[in-house]
Amino acid sequence: MPINLPNRESRITLVGRTGTGKTVTGLWHLSNYSMDYPWVVFNFKGDKHINSIEKAEDIDMTYVPGKKDRGLFIIHVSPYDLAGTTKEKSPFESYLLKLWARENIGIFMDEAVMVGNNPAFVWCLTQGRSKNIPMIVCTQRPAFISRFAFSEASFIQVFDLSDDRDIDTIEGFVPLDWDEEKPLEKHQSWYYEVAENELVRLNPTPDMDAIRAVFDSKLQRKWVRI
Fold first, then answer.
1. pTM for this predicted structure
2. Average predicted confidence (pLDDT) for the chain
3. Whether the Cβ atoms of residue 124 and residue 133 lie closer than 8 Å to each other
4. Domains detected in the chain
5. Residue 191 and residue 102: Cα distance in Å, rounded?
6. What strand order describes the sheet that includes 155-158?
7. pLDDT by residue (tens digit) across 103-134?
């Protein structure tokens, strides 16, 4: 059956244990977006699939994409970027607030468990639609991230999970009885569109070769800072 995909006004959260295919699927969703505005990709674990997108640009947290920037901008986040003090925000939180203030920019988070309940993360989730901040959030531990990642999501995509706490969290937001359903096969997922209250089982998305080809066609050249 046809399904709706996330758009510029949407937020999608993808969950699943390691190796289930959620990051590749997140990148597939990202490849379906327009690249006529910037996306910042937070690569918390040095994912090889993210790093393989040839025409994406590596930046650090000193650079916020400007009005003329287009395409993908990858930030490799270190533990030091997440460490704040009682008096000062962490570099990550400060940077995320800059993206929130900039507006009109997409955010892709590869492993949101590293963010947890960060206030800037919550601001982007709860105000993303009004500020034109589409978000793609991936995590292997849904029980340990902000519940706003689910309550504010337009779509939730669920891959295989093994921890009861994670399953309980998902069952609180998705009309899914985990014990009653036929187990997911490799790289299959449950895809839930919140507004329509529709849940479907999806087969695996295209592989990274196909996804890279789409990015290559949309990212016309290696990005040059203006």
1. 0.94
2. 93
3. yes
4. 13-218 (3.40.50.300)
5. 31
6. 57-59, 71-76, 38-43, 106-109, 135-139, 11-15, 155-158, 189-193, 198-202
7. 999 999 999 999 988 999 999 999 988 999 99
Which residues have a Cβ under 8 Å from the Cβ of 224 and sit 6 or more positions away? none
Q: What confidence tier does 79 reach under pLDDT thresholds 50, 70, 90? A: confident
pLDDT for 225:
52
What's CA 69's distance to the chain center, in Å? 20
Please, are residues 24 and 48 in contact by the beta-carbon 8 Å criterion?
no
Nearest by Cα to 169 from 193, 153, 196, 145:
145
Phi, psi of 50 (to 5 degrees): -65, -45
Q: Give 207's contacts (C-beta < 8 A, 6+ positions apart).
A: 24
User: pLDDT digit string (tens) for 8-61?
Assistant: 989 999 999 999 999 999 999 999 999 999 999 999 989 999 999 999 999 999
Radius of gyration of the chain (CA): 17
Choose among 106, 98, 96, 144: nearest CA to 26: 106
> Cα–Cα–Cα angle for 181, 186, 187, nearest 5°?
95
CB 142 within 8 A of CB 122: no
b/e sequence 130-146, b meaning 16+ C-beta within 10 Å: eeebbbbbbbbbbbbbb
